[in-house]
Amino acid sequence: MPLDSQLAAVLQGFTAQGEPDYASLDARQYRLHADNLMPPLPGADMAEVRELQVAGAAGMLAARLYRPVARDGLPLLVFFHGGGFVIGNLDTHDNLCRTLALETSAVVVSVGYRLAPEARFPAAPEDCYAATRWLVERAQDLGVDGSRVALAGDSAGGNLAIAVARLARERQGPAIRHQCLFYPVTDAACDSASYADFAEGYLLSRAMMGWFWAQYLEHAGQGDDPLASPLRDEYLQGLPPTTLLTAEYDPLRDEGEAFAERLQAAGVAVRLARCEGMVHGFVSMAPFVEAAARALQGACADIRRALC
Question: For residue 241, is the peptide bond before it cis, meaning its omega torsion is within 30 degrees of 0?
Fold first, then answer.
C-alpha cells in the first residue's frame, strides 16, 4: 500500500534535511544533532518516574524507571533504545517508554547502554544483559515482580533485546517471558531485497546503516557473531515467545521477517506483523500517526498477556 498519509507528512520534514556525508561524519557531532531532531513530546502521566544507576558490564549506567500505577509487584519490562548503536538515549525514547508502561501495566526500565564508537561491540549487549540481571536481582527493592520479566527494543535496541534473551538462555537466567522487537537489526550484511528497494528516501537509508555498523564493530568479521547478527545464529531454540513488527518501507524489513521465520522454525512462538504504509521508527511516531499507535497497542497487548 502507499505510505500512510500522516506518516508521509512527518517523513517529508526529515527528508528535506538531507543526509550527511558519511565519509567524514563524526559520531559525537552527529549524535548531538540526531538526538535533538524531534522536540520532546508530552508523554503519559506516570505514578513514578525515577532516574536509576544500574550495573553494566564495565560500570554503572544511567537508566530510567516508569511505574504506571502506584503499586508494587507489577511485572518488569526492560527496554533498549534504538539508534544504530551510536545515537539515541533515555530522552529520545521517553514518550515511547511511558506508553509501553501505561499499555502493558508493567514497570518499564529504559537502559542507557554504552554507545559506539566509544564502546564498540560487544559492549552494548553485555551492558544490556548485565543491567537486566541487576534489575531482576533487585526486583524486591524496585517494587517489581522479578518472576515476570519481558524485553523490548526498537531497531538496534531490538537487536540488543535478542542478545539479552540469548545470553540469559546461555547463562542460566534471568528467565524471560517475552521479547517485543520493533523493526530489529538482525544482520550486518545489509544485502536483503528491502535494502535495495528502500535504500534511500524512507528515513533510514542503506548508507546510514553501513555507517552505523562501521562505528559499532571493531572489524567486519564481528558481523558473523550471533550477538551482532542474530539472523546468523544456528541455534535459536529456547528463546522466549516473540512479537516482531516490521515496516513495509524499511531497509530492515526483510532481515526482521527472516529472523521471525527462523525463530518459528526453531519452535519459538512468534507473532510477526508487517505494518503496511510504515517506515522505520514508526512506533515513536505513534502520538501523531494513528496507524502507528494501533500497531503499538497491539504489541503492548501481547506483552501484557505474556506477563499476566
Answer: no
Domain boundaries along the sequence of the chain: 5-307
In b/e form, how buried is each residue of 5-39, taking b as 16+ CB within 10 angstroms? ebbeebbeeeeeeeebeeeeeebeebbeebeeeee
Average pLDDT, the chain: 96
Cα 8 versus chain centre, distance: 22
Q: Retrieve residue 180's grid coordinates.
A: 517485543
Can you tell me the distance from the alpha carbon of 227 to that of 206, in angstroms, rounded to the nearest whole number? 21
Which of 31-35, 71-75, 114-118, 146-150 shows the lowest per-residue confidence on average (mean pLDDT)? 31-35
Residues designated as active site: 155, 250, 280
Give the percent of the chain with pLDDT over 70: 100
Fold of 5-307: Rossmann fold (3.40.50)
Q: Give one word for 241, left, alpha or beta, with left for phi > 0 and alpha for psi -120 to 50.
A: beta
What the block records as the C-alpha cell of 200 is 534511500
CB 149 within 8 A of CB 173: no
> Does 54 or 12 have the greater pLDDT score?
54
Give the C-alpha distances (Å, rounded to integers) separating 193 from 31, 187, 189, 199.
29, 13, 12, 10
| Residues 54 and 129 sit within 8 Å (Cβ to Cβ) | no
Specify whether the CB–CB gap between 245 and 283 falls below 8 A: yes
Predicted confidence at residue 43, as pLDDT, reads: 86
Contact 97, 64 (CB under 8 A): yes
* DSSP bridge partners of 76: 107, 149
